[in-house]
Amino acid sequence: MAVTPVAALERIASRFQLDCVMVAVEAHGSGHINSSYRVRCRSTGAESSYLLQRINTAVFADPAALMENIGRVSQHLHAKAAGEPDAERRVLTPVTAREGGLLHREADGSCWRMYRFIERTTTYDRVESAEQARTAAHAFGRFQQQLSDLSAPSLHETIPHFHDTLRRLRAFQHAVEADVLNRAAGCAREIAFLLKREPLTGALLRAGLPERVCHNDTKLNNVLFDTASGAPLCVVDLDTVMPGLALYDLGDMVRTATCPAAEDEEDLSLVAMQLPLYRALLEGYADGTGDFLTQAEREHLHLAGPVITYEQALRFLADHLQGDVYYKTARSGHNLHRCRTQIRLIESMERQGEQMQALSAQVFAEAHSPEVTARC
Ligand code: GN1
Ligand code: MG
């Protein structure tokens, strides 16, 4: 997406129903897909902000359907948070456009939305402690649980087949065959590694797991932590909230919150799945979901991390081969580096597969034993 000049951003921000005077607009956040800006405002001496986002319409083909989902989901979550301390900061609040609705379309076709900015929060691109893994997983687990009674109709599929790992593999194979930029020779080892793991594509898809309303993008940095208390406050990035498998969400948490290295770390010696973080994450997830997961889901917990990390590796390498057309990149080879990190993480999970399976069973058995349930 082309860079939008500040004057245009200010004009676009004014197309939403702001309740204060705009004083500055600045770039915000580290998402790979949309472009985000903080709009600083002042009204009678007090400062407040909004978050303006340009929706990437190459990724989200139907932004109106996307915003309809977000309107329904945020309303549902606000109703659940009502009465909790700091309720307004616990759920994203979309702002209505002047022409009505939650979406503003510019004459050039670009699509924009706005949220109230949630002040005094921190996000983490890398996990720093077991407590962070535990509390983030609790927040995402609770998010799934709170959306389990969202009324019909089902949410729109904002990106069809988003976590269909087999389709992701087929798309990757096409990218390898087409090799439009002659990059395949430079990553032959990575290609071979991924092709060899085709069996992972069926591990969750063929397990007969129930469809649920899921977040589908549960990276650690999609949780806002309250800066003062350090506790998770709000789950953000609602673009892919739609039907899916609960374990896709667990898988992306394992991918991003059990390894302290960044997603694009080039020093692969730093990349490893750490069992103490995995344990903490499972404990938080078990607690957040309560008694909501079925026996079949509990039996497949240990596969969530490897499957989603594999899927992500396929996606990064496919984008590298296609010329970096999907994810934003900051350096040459960025998607290849991201893929290598995922591969190293898969190797680490494969080495610790038995321990992951045993821990998953143990943590969920402990969380739901009659003794623990009685204490709750
Ligand atoms: C994208 O929007 P962002 O940066 O939170 C992507 C996710 C990937 C992630 C990898 C809509 O998430 O699926 O897991 O990058 N979102 C979309 O970092 O494709
Ligand atoms: Mg996203």
Q: Nutshell version of this structure?
A:
The chain is of the alpha+beta class and 376 residues long. The chain contains 13 helices and ten strands.
What labels describe this entry?
376 residues, alpha+beta, Phosphorylase Kinase, domain 1, Aminoglycoside 3'-phosphotransferase, Chain: A, domain 2, 2 domains, five-stranded antiparallel beta sheet, three-stranded antiparallel beta sheet, binds 2-acetamido-2-deoxy-1-O-phosphono-alpha-D-glucopyranose, binds magnesium ion
Describe this structure in words.
44% of the residues lie in helices and 13% in strands. Helix 7 crosses helix 10 and helix 10 packs antiparallel against helix 11. The chain has two domains: 114 residues, Phosphorylase Kinase, domain 1, CATH 3.30.200.20; 246 residues, Aminoglycoside 3'-phosphotransferase, Chain: A, domain 2. With 376 residues, it is an alpha+beta fold. The strands form three sheets. A five-stranded antiparallel β-sheet has the order 1-2-3-5-4, with helices on one face. It has a three-stranded antiparallel β-sheet with strand order 6-8-9, covered by helices on one side. Strands 7-10 form a two-stranded antiparallel ribbon. It has 13 helices and ten strands. The radius of gyration is 21 Å and the shape is globular. The chain binds 2-acetamido-2-deoxy-1-O-phosphono-alpha-D-glucopyranose (GN1) and magnesium ion.
